[in-house]
Amino acid sequence: MDKARIDQIIDKHNAEPSSLIQVLLAIQSEKHWLPKYALEQVSERLKVPLTRIQHIATFYKAFSLVPKGRHEINVCVGTACHVRGASRILDTLTELTGIKAGETDLELKYSLETVNCVGCCALGPVMEIDGKIFGNVTPTETIDLLKNYK
Predict the structure, then answer these.
(1) pTM for this predicted structure
(2) Is the confidence at residue 76, as pLDDT, over 90?
């Protein structure tokens, strides 16, 4: 993402300091993380101290200060999903991607995370890929689903 694109995002929000979170979300959505140069440019353009931006970027789980994969995979490990086999889903994903929870593969294709609950307890185990929820998943279904996210 170049500086001109960051400026476009900021301009879309009228360079208002109150739009800080929306600007960061837009950058995160396109880049899959928040590079330091982007935070510095946002700070300068919105006239918000860089320390405040860094505090917000580290507080909210939606933001990442390290590169993430194009496809973000979240596996619910809350109680309902755990007792219904979430660990088998995690094991299958680790085998398929070569990464463990909390990691991103070297090609920046996948990032794998665990979450405590996605609010779909009756559908456990639940997996989310790029914001799309999949319920009652089995290891075999996990293999088939991941084929759609290359």
Answers:
(1) 0.79
(2) yes
